[in-house]
Amino acid sequence: NAGVTQTPKFRVLKTGQSMTLLCAQDMNHEYMYWYRQDPGMGLRLIHYSVGEGTTAKGEVPDGYNVSRLKKQNFLLGLESAAPSQTSVYFCASLKTGTYDEQFFGPGTRLTVL
Amino acid sequence: AQSVTQLGSHVSVSEGALVLLRCNYSSSVPPYLFWYVQYPNQGLQLLLKYTTGATLVKGINGFEAEFKKSETSFHLTKPSAHMSDAAEYFCAVSLNSGNTPLVFGKGTRLSVIA
């Protein structure tokens, strides 16, 4: 099993550009999450999904959109990137019915100039 | 709403010394509590968790944590620090509903001095 993978690993955008971050998991987990990590701020939840076709807002959803068209994939979109979105983005997944660990991907480092 | 406070953004210990990382939580219902570790340029990895039952929880790499309801604390300890323990540590809380995302503390960076 590859676990949770994230694409791309690094990206540099100019202000106003758009991009999509892809998260994929091969563990058949129902729940998936997108977080951003900023120095001194810990991890903050952007959006999450409790199943295919469902999404919900987290703590810091503004400027982001998500889609969960397939159970194994969770996409995070930035329609018009801003310097404030420079961050490291982590995806995670969790199996329903357990309160077990969230499995994290390796992260995507995004810089918006 | 739940919240997590980690006291000390940076803790430095000597190799072989006790490691103590502090975590206090706020929750209106009995919480599930977690400690995660993040090594440089990596994702997060679960160290240990408390859900129900025994309040002293043992995790990987010799770490343990004790859930103290009266103090709303879940401090992480290790008797003897090793150089490889240098990392960032995050405490997290969730309601015990199985459907509530984790709320993370801001993290504590542990440095180990030879």
Describe this structure in words.
The complex is a heterodimer of chains A (113) and B (114). Chain A has 113 residues and is mainly β. Chain A is built from no helices and 11 strands. Chain A starts with a strand and ends with a strand. By secondary structure, chain B is mainly β. Helix content of chain B is 0%, strand content 56%. Chain B has strands at 3-7, 10-14, 19-26, 31-38, 44-50, 56-58, 64-68, 73-78, 87-95, 103-104, 108-113. In chain B, a hairpin with a 5-residue loop joins strand 6 (56-58) and strand 7 (64-68). The mean pLDDT of chain B is 91. Classes of the chains: A mainly beta (113), B mainly beta (114). The interface between A and B is medium-sized, with 25 and 23 residues.
Question: How do the strands and helices of this protein lay out in sequence?
Answer:
The complex is a heterodimer of chains A (about 110) and B (about 110).
Chain A (H helix, E strand, L loop, with lengths): L3 E4 L2 E4 L5 E7 L5 E8 L3 E8 L6 E2 L7 E3 L5 E6 L8 E8 L8 E2 L3 E5 L1
Parallel strand pairs in A: 2-11
Antiparallel strand pairs in A: 1-3, 3-8, 4-5, 4-9, 5-6, 7-8, 9-10, 9-11
Chain B lengths: L2 E5 L2 E5 L4 E8 L4 E8 L5 E7 L5 E3 L5 E5 L4 E6 L8 E9 L7 E2 L3 E6 L1
Parallel strand pairs in B: 2-11
Antiparallel strand pairs in B: 1-3, 3-8, 4-5, 4-9, 6-7, 7-8, 9-10, 9-11
